[in-house]
Amino acid sequence: MRKKKKEKEIVEENYVDYNNYGMNNMDEIEITEEKESRPRFIMNLIFIIIIAIGIIIAIDMVCVVKYDKGPYFALRTATLDDGGTQIFYGLGYKVIKYHQEQGRRDTEVGFWTMPYSVEPIDVDAIDLAIDFRNEPEATAEKYAGKFVRITGRIFRIKDNELVLRYHDPDNTYTLRIECPMAEKTDFSNFEEGMEITVLGTIDNFTFATANKANTVNMSNCFAE
Predict the structure, then answer these.
(1) Residues 62, 208, 131, 223: is their CA dihedral positive or negative?
(2) CATH (domain of 132)
(3) SS3 breakdown of the chain: % helix, strand, coil, rounded to 5?
(4) Domain count along the chain
(5) Paired strand residues for 15
(6) What angle do CA 215, 219, 224 make, to 5 degrees?
């Protein structure tokens, strides 16, 4: 009996745990750090991807909006038979480059839900002049970048541009509307003082100076 007990003690003394064989505290720390670093690496990778996507979108926005180039990182999904309007989809954004035969010719950027829209906002020169004089910031925010149909009288014809104007006797609400044509236009049937309607996109507004009245700057215009 004593012999068996002694043999058991010898076996226990010589027992080796092969599951942890060769490991010490430093090994355990290294494994723990390795396990903890994996989620951190994944989070950093996701963050880098998000930053890269943001940079791509920003580059496309600047190229399209400021320079009328591109988009370079969006896929063209359609070319419409309205004259050549092109529709692009990017990472969360949509670009419509309008090119109607005689209508909208600007570029619009928005979310994927942004609709195709070629119906202009109708406004008279006198109403625009009053709004811009009374509430310049609100009027600029309301109309800047919008496709409009403006009715007014021709003030000047120069090169390939019409200048409309509303003028009041006190020169308080006087407004110039500069309308460069989208295509070469024959102005032989137009004359100063004639009332006409112009289609185009309002780019921006400029405030009056000593030599120039409040001005609406348009682009890609057509005379109706």
Answers:
(1) negative
(2) 2.40.50.140
(3) 35, 30, 35
(4) 1
(5) none
(6) 95
